[in-house]
Amino acid sequence: MSPKFRPESQESSSWLLMRGSGFLMPTLIIGHLVVQHLLNDVHDLRVEWAAERWNKTGWRVWDGLMLLLAVGHGLRGTCQVIDDYLHKPALNRLARVGVTLLGFGLVAAGLAGLIAFDMDRTLERLEK
What we know:
Blueprint: H1 10-38, H2 47-54, H3 57-85, H4 89-116, H5 119-127
Helix pairs in contact: 1-3, 3-4
């Protein structure tokens, strides 16, 4: 008999996050590598090329999704390791809060760069 799946439980949500991100990340990363390193000559990859790429919303969404999935997957895995090794409740909670804050900081910094990017200003600064 198979175990019942209860979407309202934290374990079910965690399981879905890990499996979903583990399935989607390789697809996104392989697509990124194909575009960056196989379809384009790595010697031609310059800031201008990246700026033109990020000027398209689709690439920003692609990179933002890679960022969110990777950090979410890594955070959840790190919290599982913390649970395995830190058995004192106060220390466990402190470590989990610290890791979570670090993850939110990484996501905030990455998304700020993706959202605030302006191709014209970037190319203008390069010309100076």
